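Tutorial, part two.
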Amino acid sequence: MTAHPPSSTSPQARFGAELRRLREEAGLSQQAVAVRLGCTQTQVSRLEQALRTPQREQAEILDKLFGLSEKGHFANLYRRMGSRPGAPGWFMGWVEEIEPNARVLRSWDPLLVPGLLQTEPYAREIFAREPRITPAEVEDRVQARLLRQQILDRDDAPSLLTLIDTGVLRRPVGDAALMRQQISFLLEVAQRSAVSIQLVDPACLPGLMGAFMIAELTNGPTTIHAESSAEGQVSTDPAVVTSVLDRYEAIRLWAYPEHVSLRMIKEVAQEWT
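Running the prediction step on this input gives:
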């Protein structure tokens, strides 16, 4: 079966085009780059044609080779590829442009622990259950999720106000040890001053419409993203934003106070023994 390159606007195609451009400007052969990357000339050729997915280490080597480590040029392109392989541009735009620049993030999830609060094993288990996914794709997605979570470690981390359906804590993702670790992590991260976690009563019907996030930006309009298994949406349209904000508030009315929520999380942790 013949491999076809992705769209010329995709991060993978841009990675290949940039590799070729910078290599030719530096007067380097594909073989010379292959030696640096620890691969074959044919593999470099396939990288340039976007017929091969680069490895994270290769992106870092290329940044060093072309003096781009400070900008992380190839590393950023790699991260865009891994943020959600095969995902539409709306999600990558959110991860790259909206979420990192948010002052406040509000989220609701009726089914799973939100991505920003998932442990590595929890995320890996979820991604591994995707239909027709390869082990390499699973690892790409896991690493991209961990990179995304780094915004919470910044000195200027956004305030994260999270609403989670109580049933999420009892939904088995992996084994009991994995769930204990995930719930313990929720209790740990909830101690941060910028993070608030509230559990929502499962009788909350307004929350059944699905997960979403709301980002308040310092220099930009409030933006929402909502997703489903088929498609997602990022919008700054005032009517859409108001609708999602109204739904968030309707869900919040069913939320337990934060101190009660944390006590409930501790109690559920004991159930995963």
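Residues 11-25 form the longest helix (15 residues). In part three we will examine how such features are distributed along the chain.
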